[in-house]
Amino acid sequence: MLHNTDNTKFYYSQINQDVTKKSLDFILTHKDKFNHQTWNCKIKTSRDVTNNILNMVELHELKMNILSHIDNYMHQRGNFIDGYIDGSWVNVYEKDFFQEFHTHIHDCKKYICGVIYLTEDNSNIEFNVHNRIPITPKFSDILLFPDSLAHRVVPNEKEQLRISLAFNYHLCQNWNKVTF
């Protein structure tokens, strides 16, 4: 479903829970390989292991679910653009870990950005630096939004891990409508 934030539309829905659970089980067996990043935050991520974790065979069902939600997002916006998932990574937040405000703007590419929540009890994601919009995601929730939408993850105040999978869908070419 589409929601508005300062005239920017974002999509909020749910991935198939069985697929999400299976994906989490796979990720949990590999989370010790993830490293701390040197960004201005406290986070562990799979980015040093692989630039596109969704290309792993074990996460194929999750990738297909994500692509169907991207298609639905574009359908609801009435703007279809061919593309592909250009990068995907797992973020692990231990107690007090967080992510600073950032965007996914690239010099040469445009993205639909997304995040899927693989754990039950998650700290908020907030959109917009000013006029903040907090969302408390639940297990298997998916959020899709434009690369220009600033967002952050507030510190995880709990002992339980907060695990999410983020991705960028590279927008390549507007789909030309065909008249029959």
Identify the strand order in the major beta sheet: 1-2-10-7-12-5-4-3
Q: What's the level 1 CATH class?
A: Mainly Beta
Helical content stands at 10-25%
Integer-rounded radius of gyration: 16 Å
Tally of individual helices:
2
How would you state the average pLDDT, rounded? 90
What is the global morphology?
A: globular
Q: Which series of helices and strands comes N to C?
A: EEHEEHEEEEEEEE
Which architecture name does CATH use?
Sandwich
Compute the number of strand runs.
12
Give the domain tally.
Answer: 1
Termini Cα gap: 29 Å
Tell me the fraction of residues in β-strands, as a range: 35-45%
Q: Helix/strand-derived class?
A: alpha+beta
Q: Main β-sheet, in a few words?
A: 8 strands, antiparallel
**CATH topology call:** Jelly Rolls
